[in-house]
Every structure is written in C-alpha cells, then in structure tokens.
Design brief:
The protein is of the alpha/beta class and 330 residues long. The chain folds into 2 domains: 218 residues, TIM Barrel, CATH 3.20.20.370; 85 residues, no CATH class. Helix content is 46%, strand content 10%. The strands form 3 sheets. Strands 1, 4, 5, 6 and 7 form a 5-stranded parallel β-sheet that branches. A two-stranded parallel ribbon has the order 2-3. It has a two-stranded parallel sheet with strand order 8-9. α1 crosses α13 and α5 crosses α6. It is globular and about 60 Å long. The relative contact order is 0.17.
Length: 330
Amino acid sequence: MQAGYVALCYHYVRSSTEDPEFPGLLGTTLDAFDEQLRKLADVFEVVSPGRATTYSVEGKLSGPDRVGLLITFDDGLQDHYRVAERLAERGIKAWFFIPTCILTENLPANPIIVHYCLSKYRIDGFLGFYREALEAAGLDDSGLGVSFTRGVDDPWATIGRIKELFRYRLDRPTARSVLLHIYEHSILRDHPDALGRMHLTREQIEGMIGMGHAIGSHSCTHISVGATALGPEEVEEEILGPRRFLEQTFDQPIRAMSYPFGGPRDCLSGESLRRMTDAYDLAFTVEERMNTRSRSPLELGRVMPYSTDTSAGLGDKLLKIVAQDGQGAR
C-alpha cells in the first residue's frame, strides 16, 4: 500500500431500495455495490481486515504500490449475509461490526427500530407510537415532543429531530426503554419475525466468519459513545461486554470496534479510549479521512456511501481524500 488505506462503511445493501413491507429504507442496491467495488478495484488495492490491522497497528506496508481500500459494514443487518457471500465469491474479506443486543437480548439495535418504524408507519405513525411509549413510561412529553404536520413541515428535518432526540437528548436507559416499547407495539406486533428481517442471526455470523470475513464490536445497543456519560457499568455493558461476548461466542479475537453513528460528537479520542480500556487495537469513526501511519489506530476514518452515490462520484471522493491526507504519509 502506497501511503495507507481508505475505508468504506456500508449499512443497508439490498436487492432493491424498496421493500413492499418496509418501503423507503435508504441504502445501496446490490447492483450499485457491485459496480462500486469493480470500479474502485481498478484504482485501489482492496485489503483484508488483517492487512489493515497490520498496517494501522504495526505500520507495516505490504502488497502492490497502491493505496488500500478496506470494506466495512455496521449494524449487523440482515442485508449483510448476502453481501458477505458475494464478496467471498470474489475473494474479498470485509469487516462486519455487530451490535451485540441482537444476540444477547434477541432485540434490534436502537436506530434500526427507528428506521423500520418510520419506513412502515411513516412519521405520523411513529410519533403516535412514541407518544404512547412516553405515556407508558410516565414521562412528560412537553420537553420531549416532536411535532409534525404533513404538507407543512419538512419531513427530513423532522426525521433529523427524531434521530437527534434518541441519539443525544434522551438518556441511555430511557431511550432504550422507549424504543423497545415502540418496537413491541408496532413492528413486532405486525411482524413476529421482525428481528430476522432486521438483523443477522448467530448462524449467519458463523457462516460469514467461515467465508473469511472478520467481525468487530459495535457496542451493545448502538449508543453514541462520545455523547453518553459512561460510568463503569455503561463501559462494561456497551464497550467491554460486547467484545468479550463476541470472542466467547464465535471463538474469534476481537481487535476492533466501530463507533455507532461515528461522528465527532459520537467518538472518543484515541487517548480517551485508551484511558478507558486497552481492549481494542483499532477503533473506526466515519470521519472522512485516509488512514496513514500518522493516524492513531483508535481514530481511524471511513467514508459512508449514500444511496445516491455513483461509483464515479464515490471514487472521486476517495481520491480527494487521498490527495488531501496521503501526501508524505509513507
């Protein structure tokens, strides 16, 4: 690798962006994903999690004299099993970061509840379930309400407020309790097989490991680590416990974590994470930057492809990052 590597962070990757039961879930189509990989492989050297780890931790370069490209996936989504099969057929090994609540609790991760409920019941329906959940929890909605008038309010701005509410304004146990109430009284009520529609199963993860892919930690319930006041109990439940569970369950060394949401507010500095624990060798954000030898392995960057990204546009974005961050990085 010439000067390091760039990394991609995918979420939903499906045969179609429209699902009859859950329309409007935004993601990359499988065809678009295949095209992106084909085009990017002409410019970058696709690297495995093992090679990326060796480079980030030990600073060792190997392979062709090209910038590396690491493929990663967050959220342990059901979509990822099919993608893992396609990658394995091409000899590509990727990193899949798993929120462990999908296995330890048999319950979906926080933002996935929001995505699926908004998709099926739209904003009006979601807010109705939200108000019912607040009432059931004995919470006053005067400071926690989100208003929406169809045809008047911007739906995307409203969705942004909903996400901000659960990510930052509600404390960790309250957000989880409210979201699980919404899930149980909406999606799970109408789709008893909801968890399997949303997330990977243990057997599928075992199969993906057998294909040569790597897994990593993505917290337990998908919280904003940087924005949450983490006491010893929270550190154990969301940072340390997931790593230990994955190692014990799948008999795999877990060296990496990816921060849920992954923005500046959601992540810790490498120094702060190291003071908290030495359990991880690598930590990934979604800051758009190249991973060079000067980059802390606990502050690694990734680029999140959007559903509207073309392969050419995504390639241009990565090349601009390389041009900006890769100069003199050998």
